[in-house]
Specification:
Largest sheet: 8 strands, mixed
CATH architecture of the largest domain: 3-Layer(aba) Sandwich
Helix content: 25-40%
Structural class: alpha+beta
CATH topology of the largest domain: Protein Transport Mog1p, Chain A
Strand content: 25-35%
Mean pLDDT: 86
Radius of gyration: 41 Å
Low-confidence stretches: 52-61
Number of helices: 3
CATH class of the largest domain: Alpha Beta
Shape: elongated
Number of strands: 13
Length: 230
């Protein structure tokens, strides 16, 4: 009986060892497969990194310019795309530009050359200076409503008055509610006399009106910083 039991135990041990070796072989095979996969992936990544990339074709932008330049025989300036020249209201001595559309006008700018409007008054003023190059302007800033510089009785009893504001002497539209701005030379008046590149002189008067619910004073400042005498 003892010999029989011993034989059974030995048979079971051999069977167990065979099963264990099979499991171990499977585990070793899986480890080898994982290592092989890692090696192959690393090799492919290195090969890809060493392969010259295809030349990139240049990309052509289709975005339209956001600014435009208006020119005349006497001047040129730059605005955004919302402005347009009004040919049927312009002459050889008056150039009219408008912001917006016919159905929704947001503003106007008129440049008078050697002429003057019938009523040269505004609620605000913006001084400019002539740059050292003699052909371009440098803008200051648009003032507050000119009536703020008057006493209360003057504000109540005066329709218009000539005063000096920010070093420019002009006619203040005391009762006016529009955001109207006249451009003037520092320490001078809105009648700006400039020497042109051809050696002749011309008088320039620039009037700007912003009709938007919230006027943008810096728009005129930006325009005048691009203004050049021709």
């Amino acid at each position: 009986m003892t010999k029989y039991q011993l034989g059974v135990n030995q048979a079971r041990q051999r069977k167990f060892f065979r099963w264990a070796w099979k499991i171990l072989a499977v585990i070793i095979l899986l480890v080898l497969l994982v290592l092989l996969a890692i090696f192959v992936d690393s090799w492919l990544q290195k090969r890809k990194a060493n392969t010259p990339s295809k030349a990139t074709d240049p990309v052509t932008s289709t975005i339209a310019p956001s600014t435009q330049i208006f020119t005349s025989p006497y001047f040129q300036f730059q605005t955004d795309k919302n402005w347009r020249a009004i040919a049927n209201e312009s002459t050889t001595t008056k150039y009219v530009y408008r912001r917006g559309t016919d159905n929704h006008v947001e503003g106007d700018m008129t440049v008078y050359i050697n002429s003057s409007p019938d009523d040269v008054q505004a609620t605000r003023v913006m001084p400019v200076v002539l740059n050292s190059d003699g052909t371009s302007l440098e803008a200051s800033f648009v003032s507050d409503h000119c009536k703020k510089n008057l006493s209360k009785p003057q504000q109540e009893n005066t329709g218009e008055v000539t005063l000096t504001l920010n070093s420019v002497r002009f006619v203040c539209d005391v009762d006016g509610n529009l955001f109207s701005v006249i451009v003037g030379l520092e320490n001078a008046t809105p009648v700006m006399n400039f020497r042109r590149p051809d050696g002749t002189n011309a008088n320039y008067i620039i009037v700007f009106t912003d009709l938007r619910f919230t006027p943008q004073a810096d728009e005129l400042e930006k325009i005048m910083d691009t203004f050049q005498i021709r």
